[in-house]
Amino acid sequence: MSQSTCVIYDRLSRLFAEEAPDHRIAACKAYAAQRGWKVVHIATDTNVSGASRLEDRPGMREVLSWLPRADYVLAAKLDRYARSVLEFQRLLDAAKSTSTTVITADGVVSPENASIIINVLAAFAEYERDMIRARITDSKKHFRARGNHLGGLTPYGYAVSGPVNNKRWVIDESAASILRECADKLINHGASLTGLTRELNEREVLPPAEHARQRAGRKLRGGKWHSTSLRDVLYSAAVRGWLVQSVPGTKRGALTNQPVLDAEGHPVSAGPEILSAETWSAVRAMLDGKAKGRGSERTGKALLLHVALCSECNGPMYRQRRAVNGKDYSTYVCRAGVGKRGIHRPNVIIARNVEELVTADYLRRFGSFELMRWAEPDGSAVLQLSEVSQQIERLAGNLAQLDPNGSAARAVIGQLTALEKRQAELQAEAQHAEGRWVSAGGTIVDEWQRRDDEGRRNLLADLGARVVISPATPGAPKRFDPKRVAPGYEGPAWRRELNPAEAALVDIAREEELSEQFAV
């Protein structure tokens, strides 16, 4: 029968002459000799707290490395291993995985009672873990209800201020001004996420992660803005100053996170708002409306992309870019009329000429109109209603599993009553909210001059422009023929006193009516 082996361990929080480890190590050696064990290693930690993690102690790391080769780990007393039940439990778990037994030379934990003592200690460790988890959960719930910052990075546009137990968000003006500027350009000036992202990078505006690193005095990593990162900071409810949390069962992200609600269903505020309710709702509506799935067509920079249509197939005309000796010879082409597989005769027209014709015609008709935009009602009521309804469903499910006469059931019923009251308020608010047309400031011609081609294309599309282009007549001179271009406009929806949903249902008769109305 082979001789059992053991590793001796000793720890000192502070090294004093009267507390030298020699006598404890000697006691361990005597205990091992009495049992007939072979001491294969002695590990010590000096000036190490018993509450520190096992892996943070050099001597304990030696013990852990010896576990697969030792039958026992021996210390003079239990408190030499750890003064944290959780850390001691981690040691027991590690020893169990290698079939090693942890014992003490004072007899409290011996080979005979080790399994019983370890089970008792494991129960205490589990109890302590549960207590710690409950304290942390209750603490977070308390501070979340007060709107306190719970740690981690603050949302872009905010910084943290206040004492440890009362941290709040304050406006970080350098970042908040970027959010306000981008929101304004999206809503009022026809900008796109791609264009804004490009502009921010050209201006060397730091993206959220880099901005946080700079504020903390840390080294920058050269990160850039992406359209998704810009979308996320504008879309998040955090710009309203609300705490947000992930929805159970969904991946955490700006598109799925919901505001944290109090017991009455109101969003919990952690700081002042960066975007107003109206502005934020308009931004979210625009981002939702412009969202495209993988594989769908993406717009480029051509002024008439998705505005110019082929008369032969009613398909879109695409801009082919071509420059010769510095001169622009780009064209709009219908792909369905190109090559051997074309389904109709070729349809190609000089881009510069058709764009100039459409611009002049469009501004003549609508340039003096005041530019308006559709302001959606504050979407926060609907968002809150969704979250409150989900909370009611969760609580109702929990209630079915509780003792109907118990205190927990009474507490849940009280929460349900408050939430149902808030649900009714939000339903009324959501049903009575109405959108409206509001002035975007200035006329259409003013806005046209401020925008680039991308913004102008959005303006054309918003006001119902359709430019039908016909193929050239066979044998006709190879020069631009304005008769091939037939601009048509549904006109500004606000002049028709329609909201965007109703405007989308207007048929071709409306276009013909407006064409006659503004004909010269």
Cross-sheet strand order for the largest sheet: 2-1-3-4
- Helical content (DSSP H or I, runs of 4+): 40-55%
The first-to-last residue Cα distance is 113 Å
Shape: elongated
Number of domains: 4
Q: What's the gyration radius in Å?
A: 36 Å
Write down the overall mean pLDDT: 80
Portion in strands: 5-15%
Structural class by SSE content: alpha/beta
User: How many strands appear in the DSSP assignment?
Assistant: 18
Low-confidence spans: 292-300, 499-520
Give a short account of the largest sheet. Answer: 4 strands, parallel
Specify the number of helices: 17
Short description:
With 520 residues, this protein is of the alpha/beta class. It is built from 17 helices and 18 strands. It has a four-stranded parallel β-sheet with strand order 2-1-3-4, sandwiched between helices. The protein has a three-stranded mixed β-sheet with strand order 9-17-18. It has a three-stranded antiparallel β-sheet with strand order 10-13-14.
Fold and architecture overview:
The chain is an alpha/beta fold and 520 residues long. It folds into four domains: 5-129, 3-Layer(aba) Sandwich (Rossmann fold); 146-292, Putative Large Serine Recombinase, Chain B, Domain 2 (Hect, E3 ligase catalytic domain fold, Alpha-Beta Complex); 308-375 and 436-517, no CATH class; 380-429. It has helices at 22-35, 58-66, 78-81, 85-97, 114-145, 173-188, 193-202, 208-215, 227-235, 277-290, 351-366, 380-399, 407-432, 444-450, 453-462, 500-503, 508-517, and strands at 5-12, 38-46, 72-75, 101-104, 158-161, 168-171, 244-245, 258-259, 308-310, 318-320, 323-324, 327-328, 331-333, 348-350, 370-375, 436-443, 465-469, 485-489. A four-stranded parallel beta sheet has the order 2-1-3-4, with helices on both faces. Strands 9-17-18 form a three-stranded mixed beta sheet. A three-stranded antiparallel beta sheet has the order 10-13-14. Strand 11 and strand 12 form a beta hairpin. Helix 6 packs across helix 10, helix 7 crosses helix 9 (227-235) and helix 12 (380-399) packs antiparallel against helix 13. The protein has 17 helices and 18 strands.
